[in-house]
Design a protein that fits this description.
50% strand; 4-stranded antiparallel β-sheet; 19 strands; 8% helix; disordered N terminus; mainly beta
Length: 212
């Protein structure tokens, strides 16, 4: 029956568009061995190893939900459940080593003085955005599917559903008053506006505040 087939297709499309359920447990383990870093995937039962270089030391590891990050003295290493390989971002010659990453169930976020680095566990990719001269990181927040980094010039949103950073500019003289993240959205309150980042679409919305 053609109408039934059409209805089934609509239901399937609607189901795919729904945000993922909250992450309730850690599905990864990271084990640092003498010559490699190993991730153990509790969902698929697989293991992924990345060799350590001569003189490389792992300084920090963290796991939450379906993503894991290891920070060494040379690079950022990130992995997610069902990944085919570890992802890496090497530090630049004059770049500071971050002390930790903020982890959500399917995203991760970290920053140095020169760039913001995010990990999208949905696609399994590391993404980054350069910081401009004298641009300062002000705040960060993460939740299951969303991460936001705020500087004194802009806000950068990261989603586990849509790849890459999504940017919105701050106005001249606009002051940050608060930042909060829930499973699929983040809200940034400033002295002039309420900015909303939605993870399922990777979009920013704004609402002007009455500042009389």
């Amino acid at each position: 029956m053609p109408w039934l087939a059409g209805m089934l297709l609509l239901v399937a499309a609607a189901a795919r568009a729904q945000p993922d359920a909250p992450v309730l447990a850690d599905d990864l383990q990271i084990v640092v061995l003498p010559r490699e870093v190993l991730s153990i995937d509790a969902r698929s039962g697989g293991q992924l190893a990345v060799p350590l270089e001569l003189g490389e030391q792992v300084l920090w590891t963290g796991v939450r939900g379906r993503v894991g990050v290891a920070l060494s003295n040379r690079r950022v290493l990130a992995v997610s459940t069902r990944s085919g390989a570890w992802q890496e971002a090497r530090y630049r010659r004059t770049e500071d080593v971050p002390g930790e990453a903020l982890l959500g169930g399917r995203v991760a976020l970290l920053a140095t003085r020169v760039r913001v680095i995010g990990f999208d566990g949905g696609s399994g990719n590391l993404v980054e955005r350069e910081l401009g001269p004298r641009e300062l990181l002000v705040d960060r927040a993460v939740a299951d599917n969303v991460a936001v980094a705020v500087t004194d010039r802009r806000a950068l949103g990261l989603s586990s559903f849509v790849g890459g950073f999504f940017e919105t500019k701050l106005r001249l003289g606009e002051r940050l008053d608060g930042l909060a993240a829930t499973a699929n959205a983040a809200t940034l309150t400033t002295s002039q506006r309420l900015l909303i980042f939605r993870a399922p679409t990777g979009t920013w919305e704004e609402r002007n505040l009455d500042v009389r």
